[in-house]
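User: My collaborator sent over this chain with a note saying "see what the structure looks like." That's all I know about it. Can you take a look?
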Amino acid sequence: MKKTLFIISSLFFIGCANSNDILYSQDENSLPKNTTELSLISKNMLAKNATESVIMDLSFTTGVINENGGCSFTDLISPQGSYFTSTKCYGPNPIEQNGYLVRGYGKPRRVPNYSGYLYWHGVMLKAENRSKTVISTRGDATIVDDPISNAISIEQYFEENKTYEIIITSNISDYIYVTKNNNRENRLDDDLFNIDKSEAVPTLALELSDSPQIPGNDPCAERPNVGRKVVAANYYKTQKTEKTTEWNREDKTYTFYFSTTAPKNSLIIYYLPEQSGERPANHVPESAYTIDIRNVKIIKKPFDPTHVVPPRVTTPDPDLPCGFRGGC
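Assistant: Without extra context I'll predict from the sequence alone. Here is the result:
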């Protein structure tokens, strides 16, 4: 009788194992007997998962750690204190930041807490635009853009024939909206703007570059404007830093993908305002945004050709199936 029950129960167990239920079991004889076997299993698992790796996880939450970046700025020790001059800002000279060499254009730095930016924990970049009247030699008046843009570069080697996922953790703020809606009695910045919030949205641009030097003639200017250079589309990608929940301050994460066909030596992060040339109407869009860069993470992956941007061509090539686009 006991033998019959054992056979029936065994059949029932096998039937359950053949169902869609997951059977959590482990043959005792298949378990590793010693640490050597465990080590071999770990190495095999690591080899299988070695298809991608984190090559950068750079935090800016401490602000600029070291001095002598090549620029200086004047600030207050406290709201009622005395002024001081500091070189703790990013400029043309590389500054070591948590193991990486960082440069800047426009004196990017951390904003002191007492200035009202209590949510700022990293390095601030500005993107502003306003109108400026230019008088020609004939006396004609023309309204043009008067922009501010910032950038930082980080020395980092990028191999060819790899795909890189770059994740920028940040907080963005519409400075015009903040100054128009704060609760301070003495709001001197209110008179700088005639609108309640920015009329345009700035762009976050990333470039994989041969050189960490940021283009431009005056990286320490009071109203800096980063120089533009001809860059292959595959190594220069952009995203609008649009706000989705509020106009004040908003945590935002931006992810970019680059598939390299040639080696590169640095990452440049630009913050650029929208200008009148980007809009059909003859109007200079007034805006003032700040982005707080808190962390930059780079993940190296196997080459993915879907992220390759074909080169731009100026003349049609009959050998290319897509003509002017330089290939499909």
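A starting point for your reply to your collaborator: Residues 1-33, 43-49, 323-328 have pLDDT under 50 and may be disordered.
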